[in-house]
Amino acid sequence: MIYTLTYESVIVKPMDNQEMGLLLEQSRNNNIRDNITGCLIYYMGGFIQVLEGDRTKVLELYEKIKLDKRHKNVHMFSYPR
Ligand SMILES: Cc1cc2nc3c(=O)[nH]c(=O)nc-3n(C[C@H](O)[C@H](O)[C@H](O)COP(=O)(O)O)c2cc1C
């Protein structure tokens, strides 16, 4: 069964196209490797991301994302089951 997790966060400083490109490239490469899919929305100074995949892989990724210095106030609003 596919596990889904959704969070929101606030950017630390505005990201330009190059920074966003790097983030997307890194994320896509890792997510293909780990069989994770989802959606990332960058809007009004923050992110919303839906992550879907194997429960352990998604939770491991979320722990890494929480520590990422490119954003703050990471708040999950769909809870692990
Ligand atoms: C808003 C945001 C979304 C991210 N989404 C992903 C993601 O979907 N997949 C991913 O691997 N890393 C994502 N990252 C990057 C991770 O925080 C982390 O830097 C990365 O997974 C480390 O990859 P590495 O182990 O290859 O160095 C995201 C970072 C931010 C700030």
UniProtKB/TrEMBL annotation:
<dbReference type="Pfam" id="PF04940">
    <property type="entry name" value="BLUF"/>
</dbReference>
<protein>
    <submittedName>
        <fullName>BLUF domain-containing protein</fullName>
    </submittedName>
</protein>
<feature type="domain" description="BLUF">
    <location>
        <begin position="2"/>
        <end position="81"/>
    </location>
</feature>
<dbReference type="InterPro" id="IPR007024">
    <property type="entry name" value="BLUF_domain"/>
</dbReference>
<dbReference type="InterPro" id="IPR036046">
    <property type="entry name" value="Acylphosphatase-like_dom_sf"/>
</dbReference>
<dbReference type="GO" id="GO:0009882">
    <property type="term" value="F:blue light photoreceptor activity"/>
</dbReference>
<dbReference type="GO" id="GO:0071949">
    <property type="term" value="F:FAD binding"/>
</dbReference>
